[in-house]
Amino acid sequence: MSSLYPIRFRPVLKETLWGGDTLGKRFGKKVKAGAKTGESWEICGITGSSSVVVNGFLKGNTLEEIAEIYMDELLGESVYSKFGTEFPLLIKFIDAADKLSIQVHPDDRLASERHHAWGKTEMWYVMDAKPGAVIHTGFRRKTSKEEYLEYLAGKKLADLVNETPVSAGDVFFIPAGMVHAIGAGVLLAEIQQTSDVTYRIYDWDRVDVSGKPREMHTALALDAINFGLDSNNLIKTAPELNRTVLLAESPWFHTSLIMFDRPIIKDYSLTDSFVIYICTESMAVVEWNGHSEEIKAGETILIPASADSVAIIPRGKATLLEVFVPQKTKTI
To answer: Is 200 a catalytic residue?
Structure first.
């Protein structure tokens, strides 16, 4: 079997009611002319949207296919023992030209019972935000089902949810059960569990292209919402040049920020997980196992779990998010 290498994938672009054109203009994503492109699924193992390899001898294979072939060599022994060949994370870039609906995601237990799926805990790294842009996360105070339903019926749900002004570099950790919405004018990277289960609860009374309101999931959401989550879960980052700074840690993902202007050698001999690099600024070269791959802002790359040591060489001053699945964690 041929040896693995840093793997690149073709983005899966998603048109949305609230999307814009930034993913094409800023990062060169191949969006359709005039399309509202809201999401670029960078690394994904969901059937029907599985990422396709674009480099090396695995070119043309899906992430699902290479996971079935390489198993723990690609994923890590601890990851493979928990998830099998199902890739446990979904990496996206999101361009919110307009605001998203207020929504919530179920946890693992509820998602398994209802959808035979994983729940969805996620985090956002804000790459850019227009003046006045906000993000909604969590309730302004601990509330009850009754109060929540009263505000929802009165079309005043936004009054019950935190609204936080945002700027580039802000991080939000959003556990399953937390109500949330991305505001207009925000560009971000999203790291989440592999799940596409979303309960939409309020859409600002807007309609879709056919003039109809989008479907709401009021009843489903009611059991998924944690009414005790009254924090905005904003994490203000303090990057340190040429050091790895932890941003968020949970049982599902461990994410750090690396800002660097000189070559760094990363030791992953004890990590026992694949590693994902998400480039948010400038560009860098990733070297491992005799292979060299360039990654620039708006791109991602997957490092197989068999990598013990990886060199990353910046072009100027670069910024990467480093993501892997931890073996033992504390929860934010």
So the answer is: yes
